[in-house]
Write a structure and sequence with these properties.
Layout lengths: L17 E6 H13 L6 E6 L2 H5 L5 E4 L11 H10 L1 H8 L4 E7 L4 H15 L3 E8 L6 H15 L4 E6 H7 L5 H23 L9 H8 L3 E11 L3 H11 L13 E8 L6 H15 L6 E8 L6 E9 L8 H9 L8 E3 L1 H6 L6 H9 L7 H7 L3
Subunit structure: Homodimer. Polymerizes to form a dynamic ring structure in a strictly GTP-dependent manner. Interacts directly with several other division proteins.
Family: Belongs to the FtsZ family.
Pfam family, one: Tubulin
Amino acid sequence: MDDLFLNEQIPYENGASIKVVGVGGAGGNAVANMISANVGNVDYIAVNTDAQALRKSGANTCILISKLGLGAGGRPEKGKEYALEAIDEIRNSIKDADMVFITAGMGGGTGTGASPVIAAAAKSQGALTIAVVSTPDSMLGEEKVNIAQDGLKELMNHVDSYIVVPNDGMQQAGHKLTYKQALKMADDVLRQSIQGICEIASGSGHINIDFADIRTAMEHQGKAVMGIGTASGENRAKQAFENALKNPLLLDTSIKGAHGVLYNISGHEDDLLMDEVAEITKLVREYVGEGGKTLIKQGILYDNRTDGTISVTIVATGINNTKSHENLTKVDEIKKAKPTGAVVTSMQDKLKKISKEDRNLQGISSRLNEDYFEIPTYLRKQND
């Protein structure tokens, strides 16, 4: 999966105040990943019961919610208890925020137990509250999966929208990855999910989506999905759009009939053509439908480092929880002929071809603290 760097820094001095709260081990990893990727001008907060992991997060604000600092022992009830004990500090850290992201891994103790408490605090203070969480690989056992499901159900009650990144999906898309590479990939998917929405909300583009529209699209809407597609060469606009729909972040969920669709188009200012923007706009509206019930908003961002590549980020909210294969079916209908000479980088194809020279892993490796992502540390944090 190609990294989505729509802008090196995200200025929002005159826009929305955005805070990202990483909860537990996986949430801390996501925060560290975003900081390493130079997603700037976002306030980062790390919340953990593990003092050692907290020190490595790199967040602006670190909140240790356990006096002993030894973790929650894989028990969500302890994570919830510790978060409630530190609720005043948590509320103070997110006050005055327009948008709060809660990112965590479901299935452990801290992320599963503390995330709903933090989300409730954010919503009570008027922030648009969005959760971006991962769920465990089924190979970790039924008990962990059940804990994750129960935690997600609780979290859903306290957020406006939520995006779920299933680690099973990462396994299916990247079955030839080493275990360590797969862990980094899962962390990077969490980062890109948040970054994609931050880019849309930041007001840093040539054509921006108003924060009021973002709130309308995402407030009280429940399940959301997003896709990121890139392409270069002939027919790159259509290919990037199709790749976004095939993106494993959407899995097999249809976005047709969504309450809101926010999409961002990114390319070099010297070669992003008006015809390409018009083509993507037409495809989005054809795909979603023009029934008048879906809020559709477009942003355009110039990225002069793209070197002939165009990127499309799609965020759809108010999604029906019933999965379908409508996305891939519609993509096949859109295709009339395969492009020649196109260099396509869909996330799933990229993962299947991944190697040490792959652009994505190069980007990740250059930005991450390798020691922080050693496998023993990660396995220890699964219980947090």
